[in-house]
Each structure stands twice: as C-alpha cells, then as structure tokens.
Amino acid sequence: MVLRIVLGTVYTAMAIGQLASFGYMPGILAAYGLVDGAGATALAVALIAGELVAGVWFLARPRSKALAPVWVYTGVSAVWTVLAVQAYARGLTVDNCGCFGIYLTQRLSWFVLLQDALTLLYAGILIHSARRPPAPLPSDDGEEARGDVRIP
C-alpha cells in the first residue's frame, strides 16, 4: 500500500509538471531521437494520460488489487526506460529527461537509468503482489471448512 501511495504521488506530480509545460514536451521527447513532430506530441499525450491514470488510481485506491493501473504504470515506466536506454546507448545528449516537464530537470545520465530501472522493479513488485491469491482463512479446530461440510 505504501509503495502505491509513493508511486501515485510521483506519477501524479510528473503528469502535472508535464501538463504545465505541455508546449515543451514534444521537444523534450524529440531529444531522445525516436520521435518528433506529431509523433512526439502523441507520445507526450499518451505518457501524461498514463501517468495520471496510474497515479490518481494508486492514490485513490491504494489497497486495490486491480491489475489495470499496475499495467498502465508498467507501460509508462517501460516507455520512459526505452527512451532513456536507447538515447544513452547512442550517446545522445539529453539535457532534460522530461520526467516533470520543464520542472526538476535532470540531464540523461546513469542516475536517470537507475531511476528507470527502479520503476520497472517496482512494477514487478506491484504485479506480483496484485496476482498473489488471498491466504485461506483458518478454521477454529484446524479443519478446512467448505460450505457447511467440515473436511478433516
């Protein structure tokens, strides 16, 4: 639950920062060298929407075991990771990773790659915890209850 609240806060803040600087987002994303123009604008819209959906859902329903927001979070995290890894591997200079739009800027570096790796690790933890079946309820006398019939 705490992880969902923290990630919800971070992803909602990311979306707000990117929305507040939306005019700059296509240029920021174009610096990664994969998209430009309308493609960069569409990617910005998709990332912001995904961040808002996952972030708000995690904050509003931190105890939820629903997989939908987890998959949205995972998808957004994977896109940011792919953008960063390929740009870093190609030696591109990205002055602003764009995580918070034009706010709290970070230059693309190994530290940003580490942050991206952590978001994917957290995605794995969220998926694992959401898929875990509920623990069976123990009965008073050590027998498993099924309906009205006691089975030794």
Structure in words:
By secondary structure, the chain is mainly alpha-helical. The chain has 5 helices and 2 strands, in the order αααααββ. Strands 1-2 form a two-stranded antiparallel ribbon. Helix 1 (2-20) runs antiparallel to helix 3 (38-60) and helix 4 (68-89) packs antiparallel against helix 5 (110-131).
Attribute tags:
single chain; about 150 residues; mainly alpha; two-stranded antiparallel sheet; 2 strands; about 60% helix; about 5% strand; elongated
What is the N-to-C order of secondary-structure elements (H for helix, E for strand)?
Answer: HHHHHEE
Report, as a whole number of angstroms, the end-to-end distance: 36 Å
Shape: elongated
| Order of strands in the sheet with most strands | 1-2
Mean pLDDT: 91
Layout of helices and strands:
Layout: H1 2-20, H2 25-30, H3 38-60, H4 68-89, H5 110-131, E1 144-146, E2 149-151
Helix pairs in contact: 1-3, 3-4, 4-5
